[in-house]
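Why does residue order matter? Because the sequence determines the fold. Keep that principle in mind as you read this record.
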Amino acid sequence: MRPVDKLILGYLGFVTLVILSRGSIVESGNAWLLGMHLLVGALIFLFTRIQPEQRAGTFLRDLYPLLLLLPLYGEIGVLSAQVGPDAVLAHESTVQRWEATLFGGQPSFDWIRRSPSVWWSAVFHLAYFAYYVIVVLGPLLLLVRGRRPAARSVLFATMVAFITCYVVFVLYPLAGPYYAFPHPTGPVRDVWAARLVYGVLSLGSSFGAAFPSSHVAATVAATLGVLQYWRSLGWAFAGLAFLLTVGTVYCQMHYAVDAISGVVVGVGAWIVGRRLDA
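Structure:
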């Protein structure tokens, strides 16, 4: 069993304990969540049975953690709803106080309104969307180039970042400025890149998954991993990662402390991932 398998199973065990500690299994979709955990556990077991010569199977085994991100992320919204809006809003006011203390205001609300720019709105929203490309494309391209150990290493560091954020989301759900404040209006909101991001978020954004920013954390971890093995691609990702980190605040997707903590988690995940996957 690989480190990434143990990481995912450990996270599923943690969430299972959280669900059981909250009471009824039948209500609030908990039975479905526990069923999903069992299916993922069975999937991981089946992957351990794949032989090296089974190329399609080994390819799927290498990339299966990426396929789990959607259901695991969606689960966060269900668990946050069980906590209740009052508890989440209490966290919201706490983080907004941190913002006010550190930055003298609410950058995620004030910045785009004080400095509206259609150009920067397009750039930052497009960089925010690039997260999906970086997280998937890095390990995928390494696999295509035949650099399987490198692809596994990058993916493991990325999953360490995701799982770290998801644990915090479960224990400390935070809605974030995307939900807490009215959305920007006017040309900065109507530019095509902004419409693209808002359209994607409308299809599947989990309430309570804001602190730390998993977008930033996973992007930073993946970028640092790719830099180890493919410098030119890594530097291209680095530019996008910087724009994403800044843009996630400008575009009112995350508080500044979400983005900063996401960078810390991403760097830490890369360091821990290298050591555990050695």
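The chain has a mean pLDDT of 89.
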